[in-house]
Amino acid sequence: MKYYFLDNRLIFPPVEMANEHGILAIGGDLSVSRLLLAYQSGIFPWFSPGEPILWWAPDPRFVLYPEKLYVSKSMRQLFKKQPFEVTLDQSFQKVIANCRQIPRKAQDGTWITEDMQEAYKDLHGLGYAHSVEVWQENELVGGLYGVSLGRCFFGESMFAKVSNASKYGFIFLVEKLREYQFQLIDCQVYTDHLGSLGAELIPRTQFMEELESSLQAETLIGNWGQLFG
Protein backbone atom coordinates (compact mmCIF):
# COMPACT_ATOMS: atom_id res chain seq x y z
CA MET A 1 0.00 0.00 0.00
CA LYS A 2 1.46 3.36 -1.03
CA TYR A 3 1.43 6.34 1.31
CA TYR A 4 2.17 10.01 0.67
CA PHE A 5 4.80 11.28 3.10
CA LEU A 6 4.80 15.00 3.87
CA ASP A 7 7.99 17.04 4.14
CA ASN A 8 8.59 20.65 5.20
CA ARG A 9 6.63 22.05 2.28
CA LEU A 10 3.18 23.34 3.16
CA ILE A 11 1.21 21.15 0.77
CA PHE A 12 -1.18 18.21 0.80
CA PRO A 13 -1.95 15.77 -1.99
CA PRO A 14 -5.45 15.80 -3.53
CA VAL A 15 -8.03 14.10 -1.31
CA GLU A 16 -8.67 11.58 -4.08
CA MET A 17 -5.31 10.03 -3.22
CA ALA A 18 -6.56 8.81 0.17
CA ASN A 19 -6.56 5.03 0.56
CA GLU A 20 -9.66 2.93 1.14
CA HIS A 21 -9.44 3.61 4.89
CA GLY A 22 -9.33 7.37 4.37
CA ILE A 23 -5.63 7.94 5.15
CA LEU A 24 -4.28 10.59 2.80
CA ALA A 25 -0.79 11.42 4.09
CA ILE A 26 1.71 10.80 6.86
CA GLY A 27 4.08 13.17 8.63
CA GLY A 28 4.45 16.92 8.50
CA ASP A 29 3.67 18.95 11.60
CA LEU A 30 0.81 20.45 13.58
CA SER A 31 1.62 24.09 12.91
CA VAL A 32 -1.24 26.55 12.71
CA SER A 33 -0.61 27.15 9.01
CA ARG A 34 -0.67 23.43 8.19
CA LEU A 35 -3.78 22.78 10.26
CA LEU A 36 -5.66 25.64 8.62
CA LEU A 37 -4.62 24.44 5.17
CA ALA A 38 -5.74 20.93 6.08
CA TYR A 39 -9.23 22.01 7.13
CA GLN A 40 -9.58 24.25 4.09
CA SER A 41 -8.66 21.24 1.97
CA GLY A 42 -11.11 18.81 3.60
CA ILE A 43 -8.40 17.04 5.60
CA PHE A 44 -8.01 16.43 9.34
CA PRO A 45 -5.36 14.87 11.63
CA TRP A 46 -6.16 11.78 13.66
CA PHE A 47 -3.53 9.54 15.23
CA SER A 48 -2.58 7.88 18.50
CA PRO A 49 0.42 8.50 20.76
CA GLY A 50 3.54 6.87 19.35
CA GLU A 51 2.25 7.04 15.77
CA PRO A 52 3.38 9.51 13.11
CA ILE A 53 0.87 12.24 12.27
CA LEU A 54 -1.85 10.75 10.07
CA TRP A 55 -3.95 12.97 7.80
CA TRP A 56 -7.41 11.78 6.76
CA ALA A 57 -9.92 12.50 3.99
CA PRO A 58 -12.45 9.64 4.26
CA ASP A 59 -15.06 8.74 1.68
CA PRO A 60 -17.89 8.94 2.53
CA ARG A 61 -17.81 11.89 4.93
CA PHE A 62 -20.06 12.24 7.97
CA VAL A 63 -21.73 15.66 8.17
CA LEU A 64 -24.63 17.46 9.76
CA TYR A 65 -26.58 20.16 7.99
CA PRO A 66 -27.73 22.62 10.68
CA GLU A 67 -31.24 22.77 9.24
CA LYS A 68 -31.49 18.96 9.52
CA LEU A 69 -30.67 18.81 13.23
CA TYR A 70 -32.93 16.27 14.91
CA VAL A 71 -33.93 17.00 18.50
CA SER A 72 -35.84 14.19 20.15
CA LYS A 73 -38.89 14.76 22.31
CA SER A 74 -36.91 13.88 25.43
CA MET A 75 -34.20 16.41 24.55
CA ARG A 76 -36.80 19.11 23.85
CA GLN A 77 -38.23 18.46 27.29
CA LEU A 78 -34.75 18.65 28.78
CA PHE A 79 -34.20 22.07 27.21
CA LYS A 80 -37.45 23.27 28.75
CA LYS A 81 -36.15 22.24 32.19
CA GLN A 82 -32.79 23.97 31.51
CA PRO A 83 -30.70 21.76 33.83
CA PHE A 84 -27.47 23.06 32.28
CA GLU A 85 -25.86 26.39 31.53
CA VAL A 86 -23.99 26.59 28.23
CA THR A 87 -21.13 28.97 27.41
CA LEU A 88 -18.86 29.43 24.40
CA ASP A 89 -15.09 29.88 24.47
CA GLN A 90 -15.01 30.35 28.23
CA SER A 91 -12.83 27.34 29.16
CA PHE A 92 -11.26 25.95 26.00
CA GLN A 93 -8.29 24.41 27.79
CA LYS A 94 -10.50 22.60 30.28
CA VAL A 95 -12.71 21.24 27.50
CA ILE A 96 -9.87 19.85 25.41
CA ALA A 97 -8.20 18.44 28.53
CA ASN A 98 -11.40 16.58 29.38
CA CYS A 99 -11.80 15.39 25.78
CA ARG A 100 -8.26 14.08 25.93
CA GLN A 101 -9.21 11.79 28.81
CA ILE A 102 -12.03 10.16 26.81
CA PRO A 103 -10.93 7.31 24.49
CA ARG A 104 -12.30 7.42 20.95
CA LYS A 105 -14.37 4.37 20.05
CA ALA A 106 -12.39 1.44 18.63
CA GLN A 107 -9.07 2.90 19.76
CA ASP A 108 -6.86 2.13 22.73
CA GLY A 109 -6.39 5.23 24.84
CA THR A 110 -6.87 8.79 23.71
CA TRP A 111 -6.21 10.09 20.20
CA ILE A 112 -5.56 13.63 21.49
CA THR A 113 -1.82 13.73 22.06
CA GLU A 114 -0.07 16.44 24.03
CA ASP A 115 1.12 17.97 20.74
CA MET A 116 -2.45 17.95 19.41
CA GLN A 117 -3.69 19.66 22.56
CA GLU A 118 -1.07 22.40 22.26
CA ALA A 119 -1.76 22.87 18.54
CA TYR A 120 -5.48 23.45 19.08
CA LYS A 121 -4.77 25.79 21.96
CA ASP A 122 -2.77 27.85 19.44
CA LEU A 123 -5.69 27.78 17.00
CA HIS A 124 -8.00 28.88 19.79
CA GLY A 125 -5.69 31.73 20.73
CA LEU A 126 -5.91 32.98 17.16
CA GLY A 127 -9.70 32.74 17.16
CA TYR A 128 -10.15 29.72 14.87
CA ALA A 129 -10.80 26.93 17.38
CA HIS A 130 -13.80 27.14 19.69
CA SER A 131 -15.24 25.37 22.67
CA VAL A 132 -18.70 24.76 24.06
CA GLU A 133 -18.90 24.35 27.83
CA VAL A 134 -21.82 22.71 29.62
CA TRP A 135 -22.11 23.53 33.30
CA GLN A 136 -24.18 22.13 36.14
CA GLU A 137 -24.02 23.91 39.47
CA ASN A 138 -20.82 25.66 38.36
CA GLU A 139 -19.14 22.35 37.48
CA LEU A 140 -18.00 21.58 33.93
CA VAL A 141 -19.93 18.42 33.08
CA GLY A 142 -19.70 18.33 29.29
CA GLY A 143 -18.45 20.10 26.22
CA LEU A 144 -16.95 19.94 22.78
CA TYR A 145 -14.46 21.77 20.61
CA GLY A 146 -13.72 22.24 16.93
CA VAL A 147 -12.47 24.59 14.24
CA SER A 148 -14.44 27.14 12.25
CA LEU A 149 -13.65 28.44 8.77
CA GLY A 150 -16.10 30.30 6.59
CA ARG A 151 -19.53 28.90 7.39
CA CYS A 152 -18.27 25.41 8.19
CA PHE A 153 -17.65 24.06 11.68
CA PHE A 154 -15.28 21.11 11.93
CA GLY A 155 -16.14 19.14 15.06
CA GLU A 156 -13.19 17.48 16.77
CA SER A 157 -14.20 15.90 20.07
CA MET A 158 -16.73 16.01 22.89
CA PHE A 159 -17.07 14.68 26.40
CA ALA A 160 -19.76 14.22 29.02
CA LYS A 161 -19.56 13.52 32.73
CA VAL A 162 -23.33 13.36 33.20
CA SER A 163 -26.03 11.98 30.94
CA ASN A 164 -26.96 14.13 27.90
CA ALA A 165 -24.46 16.89 28.72
CA SER A 166 -22.51 16.69 25.46
CA LYS A 167 -25.67 16.27 23.41
CA TYR A 168 -27.16 19.32 25.13
CA GLY A 169 -24.09 21.39 24.29
CA PHE A 170 -24.01 20.16 20.70
CA ILE A 171 -27.65 21.03 20.09
CA PHE A 172 -27.07 24.47 21.61
CA LEU A 173 -24.12 25.02 19.26
CA VAL A 174 -25.93 23.82 16.13
CA GLU A 175 -28.85 26.13 16.82
CA LYS A 176 -26.41 29.04 17.20
CA LEU A 177 -24.65 28.10 13.98
CA ARG A 178 -27.98 27.95 12.20
CA GLU A 179 -28.75 31.49 13.36
CA TYR A 180 -25.47 32.61 11.78
CA GLN A 181 -26.24 30.78 8.53
CA PHE A 182 -23.59 28.07 8.81
CA GLN A 183 -23.94 25.63 5.94
CA LEU A 184 -22.09 22.59 7.16
CA ILE A 185 -20.85 20.80 10.27
CA ASP A 186 -18.11 18.27 9.57
CA CYS A 187 -18.46 15.27 11.91
CA GLN A 188 -15.67 13.40 10.07
CA VAL A 189 -16.52 9.72 10.65
CA TYR A 190 -19.74 7.95 11.63
CA THR A 191 -20.88 7.70 15.24
CA ASP A 192 -24.26 6.56 16.53
CA HIS A 193 -24.30 9.55 18.88
CA LEU A 194 -24.22 12.13 16.09
CA GLY A 195 -26.29 9.97 13.77
CA SER A 196 -29.12 10.20 16.31
CA LEU A 197 -28.94 13.99 15.96
CA GLY A 198 -29.35 13.98 12.20
CA ALA A 199 -25.81 13.65 10.90
CA GLU A 200 -25.47 11.70 7.64
CA LEU A 201 -22.89 10.18 5.32
CA ILE A 202 -22.30 11.93 1.98
CA PRO A 203 -19.85 11.25 -0.86
CA ARG A 204 -16.48 12.95 -0.48
CA THR A 205 -16.98 14.75 -3.79
CA GLN A 206 -20.17 16.31 -2.46
CA PHE A 207 -18.47 17.25 0.79
CA MET A 208 -15.64 18.99 -1.06
CA GLU A 209 -18.08 20.97 -3.21
CA GLU A 210 -20.11 22.09 -0.19
CA LEU A 211 -16.96 22.88 1.78
CA GLU A 212 -15.71 25.10 -1.04
CA SER A 213 -19.03 26.93 -1.04
CA SER A 214 -19.05 27.44 2.73
CA LEU A 215 -15.48 28.78 2.67
CA GLN A 216 -16.57 31.69 0.49
CA ALA A 217 -18.10 33.34 3.58
CA GLU A 218 -16.09 35.39 6.07
CA THR A 219 -14.70 33.40 9.01
CA LEU A 220 -16.05 34.45 12.39
CA ILE A 221 -12.68 34.82 14.11
CA GLY A 222 -12.50 35.59 17.81
CA ASN A 223 -14.21 34.64 21.05
CA TRP A 224 -17.61 33.24 20.20
CA GLY A 225 -18.91 33.96 23.67
CA GLN A 226 -18.55 37.63 22.78
CA LEU A 227 -19.42 37.41 19.09
CA PHE A 228 -22.59 35.39 19.62
CA GLY A 229 -23.64 37.37 22.65
Describe the structure in brief.
Helix content is 32%, strand content 25%. With 229 residues, it is of the alpha+beta class.
Q: Can you walk through the features of this model?
A:
The structure is a single chain. The chain has 229 residues and is an alpha+beta fold. Helix content is 32%, strand content 25%. It has 8 helices and 11 strands. Strands 6-7-8-9-10-5-11 form a 7-stranded mixed beta sheet, with helices on both faces. It has a 4-stranded mixed beta sheet with strand order 1-2-4-3, covered by helices on one side. Strand 3 (44-45) and strand 4 (54-56) form a beta hairpin. Helix 3 packs antiparallel against helix 4. The radius of gyration is 17 Å and the shape is globular. 38% of the residues are buried.
